[in-house]
Amino acid sequence: MSDDTFNLVPRGQPGVSRVTLEVDGEQVTVFVRDGKRELLCTCGEPDCEHAAIALSWLGGRKVEADQATTQAVRSSAPPTDAGAPEQPSDLADALDDLVLAVVRGGVQSATSLSVSEGVEQVVARAPKPTPVGLARWLGRLNAALEQHDVGQSARLLGGAVRLIQDLRSGDPGREGKARMVAWLGAAAGTGWPMERVQDRTLMEVGREWLSGLTRDSLERRYLVDLGSGEIFREEDSSGSERLSVGPSPRVLEVGLAEVEPGGVPRRIRVLQYALRAIPAAQDWAKLEALAATRVRDLGNAYAHALRRYPGLAEPFVLFAPKSMSEEARFEPQDSDGERLPLARAEEPQWVAALEGMVADKGATWVAGRLLDAGDTLLLHPSSLGFRGESGPRMQRIT
Amino acid sequence: MQRCLREGVGRHSEAPLREQLQLPEGAEDRELAYALINGLVEADLATLNQGRGKVHDPRSSLIPAPVASRDTSFLGRLRPDHDDVDGQGLADMADLTTLLSVLRAGSIFQRRAAARRIVERLGDRDVSAEQQKAIVRTLDQLRDVEVAFELRVCRARLPGSAGREAQRAQKQVLESASQVEAELVRYWEGESTPEPLMQLSGDWRAQLFLHARELSDSLMAHLCALIENGERRIQRAMLSAARYAGDPRLVPSLVALLQRSDGEVLVDAARAISRVEDPRVWPALLAAYERSVVDTERIILGAALGRVGDHRAADYVRERLRDEDEHVLMRAIEALRTLGAADDVDALLPFLRSDDPIVATKAAHTLGRISDGRALSELRRLQRDGSVGALRAAAEEAADQIDARLVLRGEEPPSMSLTEVAEEIRAEAQNDGNDSLWTRLRAYRLYLSGRLWQLVGASRRALALFEAAATIRPNWALPLLVAGMSYAHRDEYAQALAAFRRALEAERGRVERNPLVMRALARCFLRRSEQVEQDGRTAIARGLLDEVMALDLRRAPSSLRFEIGRRYEALRLAGPR
């Protein structure tokens, strides 16, 4: 919503660039960008009555004239977070049983009846709909058990053990509350205040479909904050209306969003945004400048993320390789000559596609999830940045 | 500790483990489990980053290998790219005769590679005028929608009107793409509501995405967004348009659909993705095939695997040829195009003789792809005597493919008997009509007057004069064709249909030989059928498509033929409503 010139206070007085009003339980934010007024409301409806009332508070401007200019701002469906578990200890017990079933039966007998029953019990006692964090954890646990991956299974179970302790604790503390929100969503019953972010420019650099309760049931997009460089994940059940719309890549001018605590990348819920389907040259330039350049730094950040949230963290990075290895295989390496090997074992097709693209177009950056094979850091590629004839471009791999 | 978690705590004596974890003997199982997990996590996290300097993923790959075809012939071994081992790579091939044969009879990826190589060879100085003529002749005959993009690039490199026409068509498509691109920016930015690709007609969308590899990233990203998250109706329309796009930029979205869809969307996604040369395609198709339990879906997924060189579904599909379900049977016949071998000819010939023209046409196409000489005589008979235009065209194409394949195998096609040739000449002679000179002159004067009025914009008067010309010389198609095209130009499809039908009655051969007319005529039938279908008159819509499919559509653009075929099949399989 905009008009030609707008000030939130009379001219000549100290500037106010943002006002948030609560109208009938909805947050209406009025702010000034490039001399134009923008207006966002958490109800998600364009031309809503909350906005009209808010505007009438701010100088009694005629609402009818403003309503014609609201189309450019989009709203995601409001979050419908699962309710808090009725009995947190029930969920803790179910998780406990599942952990014990795996430990008793062993990772190599992953499909045992007691493990399946354990999973069913966890889902039954979790808030409905199953929170995304928990669903993704179950999806990853299933995969780790199917692959008989002891290290990964232990990490995931380790994450669950911490959650069990938080759920059973009367006062889980700040860290524990944050962990509960990361697993169970905003309404984990902790009273944890969600971090609200405003006025951010986010650029999507990758998306993938991941297993949750069922195969590929979660849709995840990776959004880079072009200001701070933080990478967020926007994640929900596949096709959910709570996800922002648009192609990949794209730029979101975010008016209002909520960020959950938890494993990196942190989950973001974009509530009010404007969309640019074609990123501008300066967006690409900012993105390129934000890419990490040292493998050592990535390794340290990866280890730190896993220590904090062993069951949830799935670090995603944007890496600008200094050069490619000169062998037939493409392996990005940094200026110290340190390599970031690509994850080829489970699904070599993604790496093969990346190699084909790099051979054809070159690479300015590679984005993807970090994994490890024991002591070796690996990259599961999601997208490739390169310079085309018309300037910087991106090609999706996943 | 690792072994305990791998094999299960219950399988071993717990005492050493308790000792290692410094737990008292009476500690509960839960305590033991937590301590084991925490111990493992700590040890595991402590090793992170210690493998710096490792250059590759140390894990071994678990992916199974494709099941290759049994074709050990030259064509079976011919690689689309360079082949460093035995030199059988199309990218290095210089012999134009062989390249043209591969362009007719190879697999989709061989045909594409042959077309690309022909484009390169067209730039070489050693290509003689005779060879150029052979290229023009072959390109003129080919109506292969799977390699339409490559054929268009070839045509654009040709000298003369054929080249100019191809360049003009390309320019038109790219201009249209630019308009769509501008609209999609407005669409996403919330300034215009209608989605721009859905505003295009189905055949124009198909035409647009036949050129996908020349389209901008933003347009393709938009298409991907619609494929991934559009409504089902939009998804299907986009998948149908993108079936022959062959663009690797579509792969992530199509893989996502293969992973999480079922029914027609899954089938459409499999058909589209199998035509893309990309390493991500085969594993995605394999996973979808192995998960699938519904025959109609599994057959298409098997066929898609066959297209990318994995023939594991061949026996399963052969079994389905005995199925009584029409849907299953038709898809099995279709699937043998990519999975079939010479042994399948005997099983397919009875379908070629079917009274149902759709079944017979599908069988002809499949026999063409299998390309065994035993099917030739039957196909030649159909080409000559077939009562349905589409079937005759399919038979002719199939016979040409078999000829080309025989050349590649070093065999010779059986020659037509003298009797067959004589019959053809006699049939052509019967098509000659005769009018009196006076009638011709009068009709021609009326026609010319009509064209003059048309030039000054008096359409109604012009149409009346064309009608008069056609009335006094009923076996002359030209005025009717001009009238039909004039109606079609103004989107008056019902009136255009009437004019075209009369023109077909008068001079069917002439009409069918004219690419411009056939384009307008086919589009007119398609549009009219869309209109009546929207009105709920499905049977009439299907009848119109039935009618146009009976014509020789070889001169119509491949995207239109594809759209007509697709809609016809959709209406037919939907059954009477």
- Succession of helices and strands of chain B: HHHHHHHHHHHHHHHHHHHHHHHHHHHHHH
Strand content of chain B: under 5%
Q: List segments of chain A where confidence is low: pLDDT < 50 over at least 5 consecutive residues.
A: 1-5, 61-71
Which bin fits the share of residues in helices of chain A?
25-40%
Classify the beta-strand content of chain A into a percent band.
25-35%
Count every beta strand of chain B, where a strand is a DSSP E run of 2 or more residues.
Answer: 0
Number of helices of chain A: 10
Q: Tell me the span between the first and last alpha carbons of chain A.
A: 35 Å
Radius of gyration of chain A: 23 Å
How is this structure best described in words?
- The complex is a heterodimer of chains A (398) and B (577).
- Chain A is of the alpha+beta class and 398 residues long.
- Chain A has ten helices and 16 strands.
- In chain A, a hairpin with a 2-residue loop joins strand 15 and strand 16 (391-396).
- By secondary structure, chain B is mainly α.
- Chain B has 30 helices and no strands.
- In chain B, 68% of the residues lie in helices and 0% in strands.
- Classes of the chains: A alpha+beta (398), B mainly alpha (577).
- The interface between A and B is large, with 84 and 66 residues.
Helix and strand topology:
The complex is a heterodimer of chains A (398) and B (577).
Chain A: E1 18-23, E2 26-33, E3 36-41, H1 49-57, H2 63-67, E4 74-75, H3 88-105, H4 113-125, H5 132-146, H6 150-168, H7 173-184, E5 195-197, E6 200-210, E7 218-225, E8 231-237, E9 251-259, E10 266-276, H8 281-290, H9 295-308, E11 316-319, E12 323-324, E13 332-333, H10 348-361, E14 365-373, E15 376-388, E16 391-396
Parallel strand pairs in A: 8-10
Antiparallel strand pairs in A: 1-2, 2-3, 4-10, 5-9, 6-7, 6-9, 7-8, 9-10, 11-14, 12-13, 14-15, 15-16
Helix pairs in contact in A: 3-4, 3-6, 5-6, 6-7
Chain B: H1 2-7, H2 14-20, H3 29-47, H4 74-77, H5 96-105, H6 108-122, H7 129-141, H8 148-157, H9 161-188, H10 202-210, H11 217-229, H12 232-241, H13 251-260, H14 263-273, H15 281-291, H16 295-307, H17 314-320, H18 326-339, H19 345-352, H20 357-370, H21 376-385, H22 389-408, H23 418-430, H24 437-455, H25 459-472, H26 478-489, H27 493-513, H28 515-534, H29 538-549, H30 558-574
Helix pairs in contact in B: 5-6, 5-7, 5-22, 6-8, 8-9, 10-12, 10-30, 11-12, 11-13, 12-14, 13-14, 13-15, 14-16, 15-16, 16-17, 16-18, 17-18, 18-20, 19-20, 20-22, 21-22, 24-25, 25-26, 26-27, 26-28, 27-28, 28-29, 28-30, 29-30
